[in-house]
Prior knowledge:
This protein is an alpha+beta fold. It folds into 2 domains: 2-151, L,D-transpeptidase catalytic domain-like (Beta Barrel); 172-199, no CATH class. Helices cover 32% and strands 29% of the residues. It has helices spanning 2-20, 117-130, 143-161, 165-172, 196-199, and strands spanning 24-29, 34-39, 42-48, 61-64, 67-73, 81-87, 94-97, 113-115, 135-140, 177-180, 188-191. It has a 5-stranded mixed beta sheet, covered by helices on one side. The protein has a 4-stranded mixed beta sheet with strand order 5-6-7-8. Strands 10-11 form a two-stranded antiparallel sheet. The longest helix is centred in the first third of the chain and has 19 residues, at 2-20. The radius of gyration is 31 Å and the shape is globular. It starts with a helix and ends with a helix.
Amino acid sequence: MRTPNVVLFALAVLVSATSAQGAILITVDKSTQQMTVDVDGVRRWTWPVSTGLPGHDTPSGSYTAFRMEADHYSKEWDDAPMPHSIFFTYKGHAIHGSFVAGHIGSPASHGCVRLAPENAAKLYELVEAQGLPNTKVVLTGDVQVAMAHRRGAVKERSAAAAPRPAAQYAQRASYPRATPNSYYPGAYQPYYSYQPYRYGY
């Protein structure tokens, strides 16, 4: 009679361990270059990412993570470091950390989903604890939308950095000016008011 009790106890432990693992949903929006991480339907994190550039677009769709490597290097792209990689396609697409922090937030990769290194480490730890079979990766959006946003941002920065002639002239108008000395016709004395009708620029 002890054997059935032992089996029931083992099953109870197994069910308890399985139920303790939460379902992870990683959603990547290529239009906004943003990732959200939900655990059992509750939002855990929201982070900026970099997905693939046009021509190397990160594939859209729903996937299940199947492999993890804490210290991985790309075989296709000059042994580029891919710390805390979580692979979700058999073609090699992964979520991983990137040390090129300046590009996070806009398309920049050859197809992977890049995160800031500290965020990649947090996600890796979570997936390691909850299990790969419980980790779903969903990719939506359009990289061209993100590229249009980036071009718009570049134009805005360029416009902000452009010289402003009116401001420059206003600044020059405050410089000391020299006017003829009425007492000594061959000499000049400083004159500090702006007189464009006599000495305009």
